[in-house]
Design brief:
five-stranded parallel beta sheet; two-stranded antiparallel sheet
């Protein structure tokens, strides 16, 4: 990090990601079962998701929750939130319904991105929380056709879609990769 500060001055994490996307666009940043995501792709997808979330009406300082296991979409989501100045709230994907309800009410998030396999829990507590918008993603949104090694059984389930939700893949396809115009500083809250 000190080397980056020397080269570029103090920057936010999203600004550093953009620098990497410009200087090493084809370098791999994520490898998911053999499918690689470059810095350029991460920057583009996070811009697209940020524009979708912004279009839903979310703005700097709003709290947004993530309820999913580790997958490339997590990185896209967190970077998109940083670009908008949103406050990310990671929620343990092992939570049961009561724990999820408590976490969502406690943090005050109005928005959640969730793995399709976990959506039934969100659906069961949605009316008991302030959740207005839900983006549903699936391991299949980034899974290679020929995984490099054996998949965990939970990753073999078919992709699911649900009414009254937004589909992650559709949003990434629909929105442009333009960088959101939000003034985010190093002193802004980003994670709770």
């Amino acid at each position: 990090m000190a080397d980056l500060e020397f080269l570029y001055g103090e920057k936010t994490l999203s600004e550093y990601a953009k620098i990497h996307a410009q200087e090493t666009p084809d370098k791999t940043v994520v490898n998911f079962y053999g499918k690689e995501m470059s810095w350029r792709e991460l920057d583009s997808m996070s811009n697209r998701l940020a524009n979708a979330i912004s279009d839903m009406g979310y703005k700097k300082g709003d709290r947004v929750a993530a309820f999913m296991q580790s997958c490339p979409q997590c990185y896209v989501f967190y970077l998109a939130a940083l670009k908008l100045g949103l406050i990310s709230v990671p929620i343990d994907p092992m939570h049961k319904e009561l724990e999820l309800e408590y976490a969502l009410n406690d943090c005050g998030a109005n928005f959640i991105m969730v793995l399709d396999q976990l959506y039934p829990l969100v659906n069961n507590v949605r009316d008991k929380c302030k959740i207005k918008d839900v983006i549903v993603t699936s391991y299949h949104d980034f899974m290679p056709d020929e995984p490099a090694f054996s998949l965990h059984p939970m990753m073999l389930a078919e992709k699911q879609t649900f009414p009254d939700t937004h589909n992650y893949h559709d949003l990434i396809e629909k929105y442009q990769p333009t960088t959101p115009d939000v003034n985010v500083s190093l002193s802004d809250d980003a994670w709770i």
